[in-house]
Amino acid sequence: MAVLPANEPVVEVAYPDKRCEEVVYERPHALSTVYTHYCPGCTHGIAHRLVAEVIDELGIREDTILVASVGCSVFAYNYFDVDACEAPHGRAPAMATGVKRVHPNKIVFTYQGDGDLASIGMGEIIHAAARGERLTTIFVNNAIYGMTGGQMAPTSLTGQVTTSSPFGRDLRLTGAPIHMAELLANLNGTVYAVRRSLHDARHVIQAKKAIKTAFEAQIQGLGFSIVELLSSCPTNWGMTPNEALAWVRDSMVPTYPLGDFKVATELAPARK
Prior knowledge:
This protein is an alpha/beta fold. The chain has one domain (31-271): Thiamin diphosphate (ThDP)-binding fold, Pyr/PP domains (Rossmann fold, 3-Layer(aba) Sandwich), CATH 3.40.50.970. The protein is built from 10 helices and 7 strands. 45% of the residues are buried.
């Protein structure tokens, strides 16, 4: 440690008044301080942050329960700093139904991928929505099975090459991609069904607003709410992160149009 000479004048440094400081960016309290296992360029991390920010802003962290699904987000219970449980493959809406009925005053949400929700879990999500369960579902659609090696999912695009459709998805053999937001919007129990994308900053902001409205629907006790998020999977698409985001914009968005497919009248003010 340096020692000043006895005759050296002491210069006092004036620090800015901390009362003038404004926090503009910080880790949401609803996110755990751990590293995720997601691949570079995967937008699961963005989706996680948006959900966590909404939980913080609504002040519901202590009352929120996550039901994690099987898929790339299988370890989501480690990443959100809320109470959580893990559901068997595709069964997150069924487990969430039980949790919500036992704890009706809690905010319960599922976080599911397209293979989990639109394939093995199709029955569970359809009936949870049809019953109007007071749940919120965050549905991450990356048009492929990410965790198990890049196989064709119910949401894979027409002609899309995957490990189980090496010549591209053939409509004659496998049918067309399933549009889950539109499908669930037709059920009486659904009060909020929208689709957003995570491929650029503007759409990320729009996605956060939709997620917040979905949680507000549950807080008001209106019924079932779902936000479908178009997401990238650079690893299984065989692309760089930038190429994957461009593919979401140029290929996925035309196939899965962004928009609001059902919004309860009570939620109209929240969308502004």
